[in-house]
Design a protein that fits this description.
By secondary structure, this protein is α+β, with helices and mostly antiparallel strands. The protein contains 8 helices and 7 strands; from the N terminus they run βαααββαααβαβαββ. Helix content is about 40%, strand content about 20%. Helix 1 packs across helix 2.
């Protein structure tokens, strides 16, 4: 299989990154059965990174973009990202109240699931660490590509003097998610049981914060 080319993200890549985010949002599968509003999902998950720290965004490209890794190292990122996400959550709330999701019961539950996740199911994160979000389209996933994407953003973090970074991933007994990331050099920093995805994931699903020392 031909190696993907990894390069810096550009504004022209925005739609492709947002599309992959939606195609891979439920542990690598599309989000549509869970939440029908792809624009707001992408606004919530990837848009803060792309707007606030595009210099820490990279894409993997063959003929088309097949994956991405995006990150943040700025101390004020959490505050600014929260402000952006609150606007998105406000739109989700309005859509829920106004009946925009009436024909899709799972979407009607999404707002409550977000509230419960933030209040009860969010794992602890290491202080002062950078953070990443990464996804690759189905059919192009392999450990070699994961390693290359991680190595690219790790180099950028080191140049900024960062010593550690973390990510959040969902895991359950039917998948070897924890073992995969441990092979990539991560350790489990914290984990919490979660019902965020409801019946779309097994009952024993946990949301893990995984961290890696640079």
């Amino acid at each position: 299989m031909k190696n993907a080319h990894i390069r810096h993200y550009t504004r022209a890549d925005r739609d492709a990154v947002r599309h992959i985010c939606c195609e891979t949002g439920i542990r690598g599968q599309a989000i549509d059965s869970f939440f029908s509003d792809r624009d707001l999902w992408a606004d919530l998950i990837v848009e803060p990174y792309l707007r606030l720290e595009p210099e820490l965004a990279y894409v993997a490209e063959m003929e088309d973009i097949i994956g991405y890794v995006i990150g943040s190292s700025a101390k004020e990122f959490g505050r600014k990202a929260l402000r952006h996400r609150m606007r998105t959550i406000g739109q989700i709330a309005w859509n829920t109240i106004s009946g925009a999701y009436a024909s899709h019961p799972e979407s009607n539950k999404f707002l409550w699931r977000l509230v419960r996740l933030s209040m009860m199911e969010e794992p602890k994160h290491p202080d002062g660490a950078a953070q990443i979000h990464m996804n690759v389209q189905e059919g192009n996933r392999n450990q070699h590509l994961w390693k290359r994407l991680l190595a690219t953003i790790e180099d950028a973090f080191r140049q900024q003097g960062m010593k550690q970074y973390y990510a959040e991933v969902f895991s359950s007994s039917d998948r070897r998610t924890a073992r995969l990331y441990q092979r990539l050099g991560f350790e489990i920093y914290d984990k919490k049981p979660t019902k965020f995805f409801g019946h779309h994931l097994p009952d024993d699903t946990v949301l893990m914060c995984i961290a890696k020392v640079l």
